[in-house]
Write a structure and sequence with these properties.
mainly alpha; Arc Repressor Mutant, subunit A; 2 strands; two-stranded parallel ribbon; globular; 109 residues
């Protein structure tokens, strides 16, 4: 699979994340690796760094519920607007907000 196709697959999954919920780079990578046989969390992060502005990027976080510091303020405003559960630290409370990506070949999210 070409890099462009992998990127499109990442962004397609991000488009499915519901308002007020979040998923992780690793969860997206796991689904894509199972289905496409390639990629890891860093590959997903690279796609998001280059093309994340096209999607709801704040809904994809690190495994600890955080984003890079330079994105935190803008993401926090989105989280508050969407009602995303947050921990006192400001990180997404993944225990309450996690969304599991579907099988990319499935017709239902």
């Amino acid at each position: 699979m070409a890099e462009e196709e992998y990127g499109e697959a990442v962004l397609a999954i991000v488009d499915l994340v519901p308002e007020g919920r979040a998923t992780t780079y690793g969860l997206i990578a796991e689904v894509l690796h199972e289905q496409l046989g390639r990629g890891g969390p860093r590959n997903v992060a690279a796609v998001m760094a280059g093309h994340g502005s096209l999607v709801t990027w704040w809904r994809v976080v690190r495994a600890d519920g955080t984003l890079p510091a330079h994105l935190a303020d803008e993401a926090r405003q989105a989280y508050l607007g969407e009602g995303t559960p947050l921990r006192p630290t400001g990180a997404v409370d993944l225990a309450k907000a996690v969304w599991l990506p579907p099988d990319i070949h499935s017709s239902t999210p």
